[in-house]
Specification:
By secondary structure, the chain is mostly beta strands. The chain has four helices and 20 strands. It has a single domain, classed as Beta Barrel (Porin), CATH 2.40.160. The protein has a 16-stranded antiparallel β-barrel. It has a two-stranded parallel ribbon with strand order 8-11.
Length: 347
């Protein structure tokens, strides 16, 4: 991995015209996560699925971010992301936001659309994220009210093209979504929930990756998500459920029919003091349905412990047990387990 040294960062800042630096308030930050995995994976041996041992050490995440406050109404955000074996160093997020008054704002640029919360206390991303996370270049209008309500609507072009209502398959802005949320607190109690809708879940990162070059689909497939979280002192709970309408069997299938991939996450966590350091233990039960084409497990159980080493420096341990779809559903019917150790710093 090519690292950005402090000298290189200083040189980059020096290259910015002085007038630009004085005109905006600029803050930099970032994170590095290194993960070691010990356990099992499924591979094919003699044309049969088999469980084999695996272990690896990888730079799971390198994130470098810049936030610029242009004036009291306009700001910009740029984030670079690198994930070893998954994502080359690239611009992950690049947005401009304008405050419109009365709690309303306008955001334009490349970002992750507000479809799902994907909260977790664990090292691994929840299975809901594995299906629903969607990064697009959007135009979004939203609001945040003093009474705890929030929401937004957004539009984007996307990668998939619909042909059922347009025989020419024009590549135009036809994708949209909306979300609504509410958060409240009383003493040690905090409650939040939200729901989201997207008219084309086929543009999620995972499903677009599965479709690969076959992104001309018969019709857009909508998706919905609902999520809630509750905090009471050291205790917290997370619930999220994501569902999609039915794909055509030629696009994504399950047992010979068009698939309706879905996922859920049910998680509880408890914060406590461990040797004078803040720590969190968490237990999660996750699952998917009709998501075999996305190579996701049918069930996953996770147990994790994370703790601070010192300021902006933490370590996490996670045990996971995956159960694949049955052979009658087209899966392997095999179970695997893994231990992941993560060392993370932020700056």
């Amino acid at each position: 991995m090519k690292k950005l040294s402090a000298i290189a960062v200083s040189a980059a800042i020096s290259a910015i015209p002085a007038t630009a630096l004085h005109a905006a308030e600029i803050s930099f930050g970032g994170a590095v996560e290194v993960e070691a995995v010990f356990g099992e994976t499924v591979t094919e041996i003699n044309n049969q699925a088999a469980v084999v041992d695996q272990s690896d050490i990888a730079v799971a995440t390198v994130e470098l971010g810049l936030d610029a406050t242009i004036n009291d109404k306009t700001s910009a955000t740029v984030t670079l992301l690198y994930e070893e074996d998954d994502t080359d160093l690239e611009v992950d997020v690049a947005t401009i936001t304008r405050q419109l008054g009365n709690g309303f704002y306008l955001t334009a640029g490349q970002t992750y659309v507000p479809f799902g919360a994907y909260e977790t206390n664990l090292v691994s991303d929840p299975l809901t994220l594995e299906i629903g996370e969607t990064r697009e270049t959007v135009a979004q209008i939203g609001f945040e009210a003093d009474n705890g309500f929030s929401g937004s609507v957004y539009i984007f072009n996307g990668d998939t093209i619909e042909t059922s209502t347009d025989a020419k398959g024009d590549d135009t802005i036809e994708n949209a979504g909306l979300n609504l949320g509410y958060a409240t607190s009383m003493g040690n109690h905090e409650l939040s929930f939200g729901l989201g809708y997207i008219n084309n879940i086929a543009d999620s990162d995972a499903i677009t990756g599965y479709l690969d070059n076959n992104t001309v689909i018969d019709s857009y497939v909508s998706g919905t998500v609902i999520h809630a979280s509750y905090v009471n002192g050291p205790f917290n709970a997370i619930v999220e459920f994501l569902n999609s309408d039915q794909f055509k069997a030629a696009e994504m299938s399950f047992k010979g029919q068009g698939a309706e991939p879905s996922a859920f996450n049910i998680e509880v966590g408890y914060g406590f003091d461990l040797g004078g350091k803040a720590a969190v233990v968490a237990l999660a039960f996750q699952g998917t349905d009709e998501a075999i084409d996305l190579e996701l497990p049918e069930q996953r159980i996770l147990l994790g412990l994370s703790m601070d080493i010192d300021e902006n420096n933490s370590v996490g341990f996670e045990y996971s047990s995956d159960e694949d779809y049955a052979t009658t559903d087209g899966g392997t019917g095999l179970d695997i387990s893994n231990l992941t150790v993560q060392w993370a710093v932020s700056f």
